[in-house]
Amino acid sequence: MLVRLRGVLNHLPRTRVPGRAAMSTTIHNTNQGCCNNPAVQSDYQPKGTIKPFGDFKRVYITGPPTSDNAIVCVYDIFGFFPQTQKGADMLADALRTTIYMPDFFEPDHPFPIEKFPPKTPEEKQELQNFFGTVASPPKNIEKLVSFGQALKSAGAQKLGVYGFCWGGKVTVISAGANTPFNAASIVHPAMLSVDDAENLTIPLSIYISSDEPLDEYNKILDVLSKKPFHAKNDHKNYSNMFHGWAAARADLKDEENREAFDDVYGKLTEYFKKNLS
C-alpha cells in the first residue's frame, strides 16, 4: 500500500519546499464548469439501500443481493444524490451486477449545495479547504483501493469502478499499478491529466463534456491507443453537454440532458459488460 500511495502522490498537485516536495492542500482545478455548475434537485426515489460494508458505515448498494462481479461508483463532491443513484440503479438493472457507492466523505458531509457555486471569498476558501481535507484525493484513493480489496475478499471475481468529476480523478489514479480493479471509467472528470493515463494498467473509458479540456482529452486518447489493452477502451465527447450532466448536476427534465444521460449509462453498460465478462 505504501508503494502504491507514493506513486499516487507523485501525480497530484504539489507545492515546492526547499530541499523536498510537499503535498499541497490546494486543488488546482481549471474546469470552470466544475467550479460553477450547481447541483440540480431531483424527485427520483433510489431503489437501493444504505448499509455498512468494508471500512464504511454507509454504502449505497443496488442490484442483485449477490453477483459474480461488482462495480464501485465514486460520486462527485455532492455525495449521495438522486441522479447519481439513478445511474447506479440503471447499471445494476442492465448488468445484473451489484453496484456499491461508498460514502467517501463519512463521518463528514458533502460540500453544502447552498454554498455552491461559492460566491464570497470565504465560501471559495471553504471549498478549497474541503478539497484539502474531507475530499483529499490521496486519502480517498486509499479508501477506494481498500474497498476494492474488501470486495475481492468477499468473493467478487472481477471489479469495475467509475467516477464523476472529483470522483473521476480518484478513480483514474486508482487504476494504476497493483489496482484491485479490472476496468475503470471516468465521466466528465475534473483535473483531467494525460499523466494519469500514462500510469494506467487496466482498460479505461472516458466520457467528457464541452467543459473538459479537449487537448488533454486528445492526448489521453493517444496514450490509450498505445496501451496493450487498447481494444478494450472506450470514449466519447459529449460536446453538447456540460460538466456534471451524468451525476448530481443532471437536469433530467431537460430532454437533451436526459438523452445524453441515458446514452452514457448505455455506454457504461456495454463497456463493463465487455470488460467484466
From TrEMBL:
Span of domain Dienelactone hydrolase: 59-274
Domain of life: Eukaryota
A GO molecular-function annotation: hydrolase activity
SUPFAM superfamilies: alpha/beta-Hydrolases
Designated name of the protein: Dienelactone hydrolase domain-containing protein
Organism: Leucocoprinus leucothites
